[in-house]
What does this fold into?
Amino acid sequence: MTRDLTLDKTIASPAEKASAPPDTAPSVLAKIAADRAALRAQVAGAVLLFLAISVVGIGIWSVATADQGADGLAPTPGGTWDQLVSILKDPFYVTGPASVGIFWHLVASLQRVLTGFLLAAVIAIPLGFLLGNSARIRWATEPFVQVLRPVSPLAWLPLGLALLRDSENTAIFVIVMASLWPILLNTIDGVQKVNPLYMQLARTLEASRAQVIRSIQLPAALPSILTGLRLSLSTGWLVIIAAEMLVGSRGMGYFVWNQWNRLSVPAIVVAILLIGAVGFVLDRLVVWGAKQIPHG
It folds into this structure.
């Protein structure tokens, strides 16, 4: 009998185990600290690798252009750095309609790209929902989409000049044609991939078409739409540089072409670096904006 009482005291009941406070806080904190340390190590490693690649790349660049004289066209690292300092030293000057600092060229290009990008989004997103919801309309328009989508955006440039008779509007028209297809196709794909059970539930509840789109399809298709917007913006920024070489008196494309006419190749390299940096910032802004929108 004494042995049974001893066992009863030493073996806790399930209720006592459930009521006992879990001793997991130290282990959770340790895991969080370890994860943060691992993340810091990864970031530090990535930074060091980036610096190493940059140093190696500049070294190869220096060796490849070492035999260039003062009149050589190939840009050297030193000459490119001097041009970078010169261009960024006074980016806001204005001495004429086309003689402006690099800031105004960037502003002109961004204004054209964002205008064309927003127009393309206003057209493509509703059209994508229409085609995604109607198989008949989608099949009827599929030949037009597949024929027009592979056309180079610059091929629309002469047509835009002929129809619009304005270089500024033509540049925006080219951006619209370049940005339209990624948004349209990704929107259609996102609408078609909505879980059929949700659509059946909406029909059971007799939800209206507007309610279905707002409450079911839009949240479900939003990741695909955001992917299309991201691709569209990068495509528009890519195309505007080429378009501005042919139209417009301001913009990064015009700046590059003007520097080539002056045979200032280091300035072209600086422009390429700035174009890439702005494109990177635009992409990060789209990604950041996508994270701020709750979606299902």
Remarks:
- The chain has a mean pLDDT of 83.
- The CA atoms of residues 187 and 225 lie 5 Å apart.
- The chain has one domain: 81-290.
- The domain at 81-290 is CATH 1.10.3720.10 (MetI-like fold).
